[in-house]
Amino acid sequence: MPQYQAVKGARDIFPEETARWKYVEGVVHALAALYGFSEIRTPVFEYTELFQRGIGATTDIVGKEMFTFLPDPGGKSLTLRPEMTAGVMRAALQKNLLGTAPVHKLYYISELFRKERPQAGRQRQFSQFGAELLGVSTPAAVAEVITFMMQVFETLGLRGLRLRINSLGGTHDRQRYREALQAYFSPYRDRLDAPSLERLEKNPLRILDSKNPDMQELVAGAPKLYDYLDADALADFEKVLFFLSERGIAFEIDHRLVRGLDYYCYTAFEVTGSELGAQDAVGGGGRYDGLARELGSSADVPAAGFAAGMERLLMTMEKQGLFTALTPHSPLVYVVLQQQEFSDHAMQVAFRLRKSGISTEIDLAGRSMKSQMREANRVRSSYALIIGENEVVTGQYTLKNLVTSEQTALSLETLLEILHEPALKE
RNA sequence: GUGAUUGUAGCUCAGUUGGUUAGAGCGCCAGGUUGUGGCCCUGGAGGUCGGGGGUUCGAGUCCCCUCAUUCACCCCA
After folding, report:
1. Which of A74, A365, A366, A415 has its CA 20 to 30 A from that of A340?
2. CA(A378)–C1'(B25) in Å?
3. Cα-flanking dihedrals φ and ψ of residue A167, to 5°?
């Protein structure tokens, strides 16, 4: 075992895998542009207080999953960001973005940190791509955010994803419902498991998505959030669903869907995949009108957004065989020299090729010609450019097609012309 | 944070009831004559058997601790 290992829950991504990341990131960037979202990058750490206020002090994220540290004695506590929304909202408020235009559409691909026990689809450092639409949270806005997310999944070729959606109502609706739930569950205290008992006080909504089978019966009889929504909330929800239907986006209404973060209100949604194991959420989001005020804004900032887990996305794509078409980049030409005495000459030829835009590889270790040829083959170079005594004397280099094994003698000028033919680069 | 699981070469794995210099396939490296890859052949490098302690004449094999992995719970992307 090596003396040093990557930190628990953090991993290295090597070139083969990097290609996949770049592919997925490329799709995200392209579709963001299509939908009019602009990229924002915020610091990886923030003052701890931001997350305590923004995400909610009673949530697990804030309660036990943050990497928090003191940069210097007496300084303010800092935390590695466990999610993006609070930081993006902070940035928007700090710059008074909404003062420059009423609506801002932002997206990101960023690393996040959560101190959880690693398992399938969950690590301590992970990436999400997501979008935040600030300034409006109309059904059209919420639908836009969901549509953007779903189109990314669709473009990547993902199959079998489930989009579940629910309305949490406004704060007043939720308050009434909360009380109703407490009233319902309180008589059954002895039948609730430990976690549910704790939620009864803190956040009774969360009892609803308990995975404990013993709770199912009890949960099934609980009052439905849907019955506590007022007319406006219902109309709002219906409109969101209408937009999704119009766009052919399949969804399931799930009245028990409750998102974990405190700032969500009205529409909340989640996308799950069947190939991920226990951590099956690929993406999720919702509307969070109250967050800005929570962070000290004097005015409400209507907003909606989503976040999707890059690792889980990649994992699902891998399982569904969506990366087969991705081939590693290989050089067009591998410069092979017969004897070391021609090394300087060969180096200069390689340089000329590269300078003119032809991807070229050449041995740097002084290995034998046989080794160089093997290497050329191994890296799947299309051509070997052989340089030996004859070539140096005559100025005619030997170009060998490594697929057909044909060889031709060419001057450097002709070589550059031929290698620039688009057909050869395929 | 809780529970379970696994830990032998770069990778996938063998290693008999504890018994001499720990193996295979793939990969890697080098050769297979005088300037040429893929296939094939030959050879080679590479492991403190996760780490530490213990039992034993003797431990990769047994016991304890520890670290890491994986999976699940909690929660979330």
Report:
1. A415
2. 20
3. -115, 130
Q: Which residue's CA lies closest to nucleotide B9 at its C1' atom?
A: A1
ipTM for the predicted complex: 0.83
Q: What is the pLDDT of residues A43-57, one digit of tens each?
A: 999 999 999 888 877
What's the CA–C1' distance between A407 and B28, in Å?
Answer: 29
List residues bridging with A400 in a β-sheet. A384, A407
The nucleotide closest to A283 (CA, C1' atoms): B77
| Complete DSSP assignment for A184-233 | HHGGGGGGS-HHHHHHHHH-GGGGGG---HHHHHHHHTSPPGGGG--HHH
CA–C1' nearest nucleotide, residue A372: B37
Nucleotide nearest to A195 (CA to C1'): B74
- For the domain A15-169+229-319, what is the CATH superfamily, name and number? Bira Bifunctional Protein; Domain 2 (3.30.930.10)
Q: How many CB atoms are located within 10 Å of the residue A233 CB? A: 22
Mean pLDDT of A138-150: 97
Task: Name which of A309, A313, A305, A311 is nearest A87 in CA terms.
Answer: A305
Nucleotide nearest residue A212, measured CA to C1': B73
Residues comprising chain A, all counted = 426
Nearest residue, CA→C1' of B49: A1
| pLDDT tens-digit series, residues A146-180 | 999 999 999 999 999 999 999 988 878 888 888 88
**A355: burial class by Cβ within 10 Å (0-12, 13-18, 19+)?**
exposed
CA closest to B29 C1', residue: A371
- The integer distance in angstroms from the CA atom of A31 to the C1' atom of B41 is 54
Check: CB of residue A307 under 8 Å from CB of residue A83: yes
For residues A366-383, average pLDDT: 93
- Domain positions in chain A: 15-169+229-319, 333-425
Q: How far apart are CA A91 and CA A295, in angstroms?
A: 11
Sign of CA dihedral A67, A71, A74, A79: negative
CA of A11 to C1' of B51 (A): 22
